[in-house]
Design a protein that fits this description.
This protein is an alpha/beta fold. The protein has two domains: about 5-100, Udp-n-acetylmuramoylalanyl-d-glutamate--2,6- Diaminopimelate Ligase, Chain: A, domain 1, CATH 3.40.1390.30; about 105-225, Udp-n-acetylmuramoylalanyl-d-glutamate--2,6- Diaminopimelate Ligase, Chain: A, domain 1 (3-Layer(aba) Sandwich). The chain is built from nine helices and eleven strands. It has helices spanning about 5-15, 50-55, 80-90, 100-105, 110-120, 145-155, 190-195, 205-215, 230-240; strands at about 30, 40-45, 60-65, 95, 120-130, 130-145, 165, 175-180, 200, 220, 245-250. α8 (about 205-215) links the parallel β9 and β10.
Length: about 260
């Protein structure tokens, strides 16, 4: 399949254009000639030397990641940036990136993956960021003990053996859940306004401890990396359904 055909399909599925002007990431094709023929696609969370090397070892033609190389533009190609771009070019690997579009997608997204694992019902968009949303909210059919929710999610997390953290400041049994993966504690107030008893996100910030305690809401910190593996794995399955071979390359950071 020609690279342009593949990236156009991905952009359409992910509504990439809707995030233009909102996301600092340059979503879409970041490296590579559009006319390249693609046979094997590697997927990973981060575009880093380790994942580029993995892609080269499996002779991938394209690397698809959640975190890319261009954030607000590239001013200089030196040092770390040079090493990563050079590794892609030397191995003849293109790079496609989907950041916020892959966080908030209702079916393929990171938040959608967590909602599926938890078995949430009546899911809806959550996590407003300008005109778009980057997460999901949903409900349990019956209230669930907070510890059981954590134990349901724990086996699905690639966390570098760091484990998840719970800030247990809300009800011991939870019905309403809000999810924003990655660095999502800034949406705590929106979760409170939505009557959520639990916010699931990736990494925490110092102030969220007291904010959650004062608002009497639970927060589950799954780890930034660990909370964002679901989207790229969903893309892997989608790309396979289009007739291409794929591979998934995990590099848990524990952060």
């Amino acid at each position: 399949m020609e690279l342009t055909t593949l990236t156009n399909r991905l952009d359409e599925q992910l509504s990439t254009a809707d995030y233009s002007g909102v996301d600092a990431s340059a979503n879409g094709l970041q490296v590579g000639p559009p006319e390249t023929e693609i046979e094997h696609v590697a997927v990973a969370v981060d575009a880093a030397e380790a994942t580029i090397q993995d892609a080269a070892e499996v002779d991938a033609d394209l690397l698809v990641t959640h975190h890319g190389l261009s954030w607000g533009g590239i001013e200089r190609v030196t040092d770390r940036q040079y090493n990563r771009i050079a590794a892609l070019i030397e191995s003849d690997i293109a790079l496609y990136v989907s950041h916020l579009p892959l966080d908030g997608h209702p079916d393929l997204g990171n938040a959608a993956g967590i909602a599926d694992i938890l078995g949430l019902e009546s899911t809806a968009p959550f996590g407003s960021m300008g005109p778009i949303t980057i997460g999901q909210q949903g409900t349990f059919a019956d209230p669930q003990p907070l510890e059981e929710i954590a134990e349901t999610l724990r086996p699905a997390l690639e966390d570098g053996n760091q484990g998840l953290q719970l800030l247990e400041f809300g009800p011991a049994e939870v019905e309403q859940v809000a999810i924003v993966t990655g660095s999502g504690v800034d949406w705590l107030d929106e979760a409170i306004a939505a009557d959520a008893e639990l916010l699931v996100t990736g990494e925490g910030k110092q102030q969220v401890y007291h904010q959650a305690r004062e608002a009497e809401i639970n927060v589950l910190l799954a780890g930034h990396y660990a909370s964002e593996t679901f989207g790229v794995q969903s893309l892997q399955k989608l790309i396979e359904s289009w007739g291409l071979s794929t591979s998934y390359h995990a590099h848990p950071t524990g952060l």
